[in-house]
Amino acid sequence: MSILAQRLLQTLKKHRFQPVTLQGDSYVLEVVPYHGKIEAGFTLWRLEGGELVPVASGHTENGHLLTAEGFALQLPADVERTMLTLLSRKR
Q1: Which residue from 47, 19, 46, 17 is spatially nearest to 31, judged by alpha carbons?
Q2: Which strand (E) or helix (H) includes residue 22?
Q3: CA 91 – CA 7 distance, rounded (Å)
Q4: Which one of 47, 57, 61, 90 has the lowest number of neighbouring Cβ atoms within 10 Å?
Q5: pLDDT single digits (tens) 4-62
Q6: How would you label 63-74 residue by residue, b for 16+ Cβ within 10 Å and e otherwise?
Q7: How many CA atoms does the CB half-sphere of 57 hold within 13 Å?
Q8: Contact 87, 20 (CB under 8 A)
Q9: DSSP 53-89
């Protein structure tokens, strides 16, 4: 079971399954309900020269991170750390 997947879902539950946007250190993390399920979709963006550039996206399912196509998603360690840092900030 992925700690990141758990934290994404906990964040949505905390906000009553309303979309959440977290920002910091030139990153923007969007967490949204995933297709009416009790799961979370996410997109991590990096702000570069005033433009948002996608870094990673996917969704949770049964405690795992998956791509939009349903394959297992392995994020680079630095991307996972960035997302966990954003999720740990108070909002």
Answers
A1: 19
A2: strand 20-24
A3: 14
A4: 90
A5: 999 999 999 999 999 999 999 999 999 999 877 789 999 999 999 999 999 999 999 99
A6: eebbeeeeeebe
A7: 12
A8: no
A9: EEEEEEEEETTEEE-TTS-B----HHHHHHHHHHHHS
Tokens 């030139």: give the residue.
26
Dig out the tokens for 17 from the structure: 């399954």
Question: What does the alpha-carbon distance between residue 69 and residue 78 come to, in Å, rounded to a whole number?
Answer: 23
- Give the pLDDT score at 91: 58
SS3 for 2?
coil
Residue that has been written with the tokens 């949770």 in this structure:
60
Q: Is the overall model pTM greater than 0.85, yes or no? A: yes
